[in-house]
Amino acid sequence: MRKTIQSKNGRDVLTLAIETSCDETSAAVVKNGREVLSNVISSQIDLHKKFGGVVPEVASRKHVENVNIVIQEALDTANVELKEIDQIGVTYGPGLVGALLVGVSAAKAMAYALKIPLIGVNHIEGHICANYIEDKTLVPPFLCLIVSGGHSHLVFVEDYGIYEVLGKTRDDAVGEAFDKVARAMGLGYPGGPLIDALAQKGDTKAIKFPRVYLEADSFDFSFSGIKSAVLNYLNGEKQKGNPIVVENVAAGFQQAVIEVLVYKTIEAAKRKKTDTIVLAGGVAANSGLRRMLTEEGKKQGLKVKYPSLTLCTDNAAMIGCAAYYDYLAGHAADLYLNAVPNLKLGEKYVRYSQE
């Protein structure tokens, strides 16, 4: 690659980022890691609603249709030409393998044609980095709770790109539990926003669902039990012929989930002796979680931050931010970069060069 990035001499660095890990096709242009010039997101929610969830093959085909259009729109919105781009950042895992391959293939082709660096980005790391865009003053160290449809992590961010995973789910991710409960209640997809809206109208004390804290010293999560408890409640009430107040079910379920999330997050912050907590991921948009974590954090003298709603969902701006810091750390990839659907936070790609 002929182009080098010299950010330390004051020259602006433009990153073109691509995100196709699940059912959003997104492209963004990000300047110097934190200034978003464009962030275009093409969602497939309406396409997958009739299936009650994301269908991987359908998602992949839609990414193929959309990716070039979305990239061009991101460039046009930013008023930037391809020749001005300094590097390409792309999500290469974790996610749906077919969906990831669409973005990775597009990014590799562009990096090769433009002779500029290619940066493979971990999707979970991207969610963390969304907070750098939201709060330009945020710097490590801090604690991050990452909650989405596929991930539930408690992570101590020691420095840019340096992470200590304190805990993660042992079964269902929290967003997955929301979707499954919403489906059982006949609410539709995606379940998180629908349950959140209903919960605000319900009584959190009307139905007592279990809180699963696991071992006393563990920061791991488990949400399969509460999901089963809600399903058993719904089936039991139907068999008895009792009316089901869906608002109360939603409120009781959501309260049980967020109490566990908040408790473990606060305890983890104390353990790591940090005064800053940030939220990340799709479930970070949940109003109940934001409110309770902020209130409990304030009681403990902790600052709680979270991204705007757009930056909570899957988006390319957060990938562009992560790519910027990855490149500064020397983590550029070669053109043998491949999709890694089960990529773990903190892992970096292997160089597949055959030289």
Can you give a write-up of this model?
With 355 residues, this protein is an alpha/beta fold. It has two domains: 7-129 and 312-328, ATPase, nucleotide binding domain (Nucleotidyltransferase, domain 5); 141-307, Nucleotidyltransferase, domain 5, CATH 3.30.420.40. It is 43% helix and 18% strand. It has eleven helices and ten strands. Strand 2 (24-31) and strand 3 form a beta hairpin. It is globular and about 65 Å long. The model is unreliable at 1-6 and 351-355 (pLDDT under 50). Its EC number is 2.3.1.234. Pfam families: TsaD (PF00814). Substrate binds at residues 146-150, 179, 192, 196, 286.
Main attributes of the structure:
5-stranded mixed β-sheet, Nucleotidyltransferase, domain 5, metal-binding, alpha/beta, 355 residues, cytoplasm, 10 strands, disordered N terminus
CATH topology of the largest domain: Nucleotidyltransferase, domain 5
Give the CATH class of the largest domain.
Alpha Beta
Radius of gyration: 21 Å
Query: Which percent bin holds the helix content?
Result: 40-55%
User: In whole angstroms, how far apart are the ends?
Assistant: 15 Å
The overall average pLDDT, rounded, is 92
Q: Give me the CATH superfamily of the largest domain.
A: ATPase, nucleotide binding domain
Helix count? Answer: 11
Order of helices and strands: EEEHHEHEHEEEHHHHEHEHH
Spans with pLDDT under 50 lasting ≥5 residues?
A: 1-6, 351-355
Domain Gcp-like: 35-320
Enzyme class: transferase
Pfam families: TsaD (PF00814)
EC number: 2.3.1.234
